[in-house]
Design goal:
2 domains, alpha/beta, 5-stranded parallel beta sheet
Length: 220
């Protein structure tokens, strides 16, 4: 939308994997003698509870080489106006810290395309995706803070499935509008699979969050 504020990369939400990377670098720094035991404990706690890339970068700002490289890397590359993905019988995927463009054009003849937005670098509020799927497939993995609309996709003998649910309690980081056509192939929107507890979380013996139980009427 015109005039809408675009958040800086530092203000974007960090993922579990981002926190794990910082935990690893802090542990190595302590082993090298750069951090005391007390400093390590304090920074590990801050890393595992950090919300944004900026929070994580601050924990590495006074460490050399890899730490500063990671901190500097939070500045996002400028998104392209248009990116194209064309596959014949092969496959293509975008995952990890890939930069989401303004517009994405996808052509799949008989191959597969996977777009994982879990850790994507998102600097714009919207993304337009135009698909041309013959007998191949296009799959979008969207976390709860990414909203996708596939109502304008024309379907022949193929299918369009939307299995993801947006988080009603938060404002979307990204709104995706999918248009185009599907012949005998498929377009699928689904959530990513739940991540397993990382090695560092296990090492630090951090338990998984316990489910909140509703109090029954009359319970003490």
């Amino acid at each position: 939308m015109p005039g809408e504020m675009v958040p800086e990369r530092r203000d974007l939400r960090a993922s579990h994997e981002d926190r794990d990377q910082v935990v690893e670098r802090l542990t190595v720094a302590a082993a090298d003698g750069r951090l005391t035991t007390e400093e390590l404990d304090e920074r590990l706690e801050a890393a595992l509870t950090a919300r944004t890339y900026g929070d994580l970068a601050a924990l590495l700002a006074d460490l050399p080489e890899a730490g500063r490289t990671w901190a500097a890397g939070i500045e996002a590359a400028a998104p392209k106006d248009v990116s194209r993905i064309v596959v014949g019988s092969a496959s293509a995927r975008r995952d990890g810290d890939w930069v989401v463009p303004k517009r994405l054009e996808i052509e799949s003849r008989s191959g597969s395309v996977l777009l994982d937005f879990t850790r994507a670098v998102i600097s714009l509020p919207t993304l337009e995706i135009e698909v041309a799927v013959r007998s191949g497939s296009v799959t979008l993995l969207v976390p709860p803070d990414v909203v996708a609309d596939v109502d304008d996709v024309r379907v022949g003998s193929g299918s369009v499935r939307h299995q993801a649910q947006a988080d009603p309690g938060t404002s979307p980081r990204l709104r995706i509008q999918v248009t185009g056509e599907v012949g005998s192939g498929s377009v699928t929107i689904r959530p990513p699979r739940p991540s397993r507890r990382s090695f560092w979380q296990w090492l630090l013996r951090r338990p998984r969050p316990a489910p909140t139980l509703s109090r029954l009427p009359g319970a003490g």
